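Q: Predict the assembly, please.
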Amino acid sequence: MPNSSAPHANASHGNTPATQNGPSGIAVPLRLRNSERIPLSDRSMAQQTITITIIGGGLVGALLAQQLAQRGFAVEVYEKRPDPRLSGFLGGRSINLALAERGLQALRTAGLADDVLQRAVMMRGRMVHGRDGNSGLQRYGVDDSEVIWSVSRGALNMLLLDAAEAAGVQFHFEQSLVSADFDAQRIRLADAAGVERELPVGMLIGADGAGSAVRATMNAHSPLGERIESLGHAYKELEIPPAGELPVGVLQLSGGHDQYALEPHALHIWPRGGYMCIALPNTEGSFTVTLFLPAQGAAPSFATLPDAMAAAAFFSEQFPDLLPLIPRFSEDFDSHPVGTLSTLYLQRWHLDGRALLIGDAAHAIVPFHGQGMNCGFEDTVVLANLLAAAPNDSAEVFAEFQRVRQPNADAIATMALENYVEMRDSVADPHYLAKRELGALLAERAPQHYMARYRLVTFSHVPYAYALERGRAQDRLLEQLLRDTPNVADIDIEAAARLFRSNLEPLPRLRHG
Ligand SMILES: Cc1cc2nc3c(=O)[nH]c(=O)nc-3n(C[C@H](O)[C@H](O)[C@H](O)COP(=O)(O)OP(=O)(O)OC[C@H]3O[C@@H](n4cnc5c(N)ncnc54)[C@H](O)[C@@H]3O)c2cc1C
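A: Predicted assembly structure:
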């Protein structure tokens, strides 16, 4: 994508304003925390002697490492997998991801946003594909300043590794954390051959993802209050190849253009009630399709689709327009793993000043708001600024990091779960569509008092916890207005705007990021 098309979203500056409940019960930002507004140039660069050890060089670990190095820390990263720049990226999770304003803002702070956007595909909204084969675009925002971006996980990870190395970070690949002795301040690592060694560490940060080994070893030292809630639904990835690899007859029906078999600038959804498929575009013309389905139980579930033949029969019934676009359906279905989906809740994210969890290691969520990485990227800016402001007080910094970020992590976990129902079901529901239509009218008529929750989460930097509460309050009023009539045309929009103005605080000042 050209840089000129980078989004300029409505967004408050900074990251996570402190909040308190306003008269309407909605948390309103009061002030930016000191740690979040220290200009980089003013920060002490005297932290060279402090070494920070990060376990995990994935998306969050690599970006955090870069930001800490930029602020003058010496950073060592130990990553389980081989260097993807030498041996190719070993995936395991989604092939591509949606990058939104929060992630972009973190990348801007790191000076990397333009580079990332050059390798991304703009998605303007949801292209909803009905059972009848008809499709329609539901825009995410008001215009092209409010879009999300499809990025390749592997390409993004490699870009972040390059940037971190350029900032002075030392990476050690094929080094898997086995355990840590926090009292002796030593970690045990295993190489690819399983040969173990021990190292002394100071500050240890676990950015090793949802199955974090750092978390397990912290939990063994003193329990973190861990709770993992399985969604009960799982996923499998399939591929729509570039248009050139598909028969002309198939392409005529699918509405694609140029090298893409479908409209490229959209996140495609085939909602089917209790399950769905989605597809995100890749830069070279393909789409990655993800089927989300209950893991067990009565049909349809992954348990009732034991092989590609059963799955193809299911697709030809439920996704007849999608199946012809996946010519390698059988190979993909039989060879790609079924991924599980869970939400992780912890009571404690750190062990005094010795160890801290960040990103998915602290708060893995289900992917339906496309915010896991975005939230983890937001984490990195908050933590890097806190540490830069108080480099010798890691216990205080880690406690403050949890205090600031945990309510927001909990809120996006809730919204991500709610969004699964919205995506697989509500996007095709007339009541949901009426609420969307009414919301769009109110956003024009009373922009200070109504902004769709999706936009607050995706295109602004207001705390997730604020977006959750504000969304609930707005939703109650929309329901009230639609109680007596299902028809938006029958509603007096001026009176509706007055209802919002008299019941809700003005939205916090949102400005371009
Ligand atoms: C299907 C799916 C779709 C998603 N879509 C989106 C989306 O559209 N938008 C979005 O924002 N988020 C999305 N997410 C969430 C996103 O993938 C995660 O939030 C993000 O990857 C978290 O980054 P992380 O660095 O914390 O963890 P990870 O990306 O899991 O990285 C952890 C790293 O630690 C390494 N590691 C693991 N164990 C060890 C060890 N013992 N020693 C050393 N290294 C270790 C791993 O090899 C890996 O490199 C999606 C997730 C899934 C499953």
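Confidence is low (pLDDT under 50) at residues 1-44. The first helix runs from residue 59 to 70.
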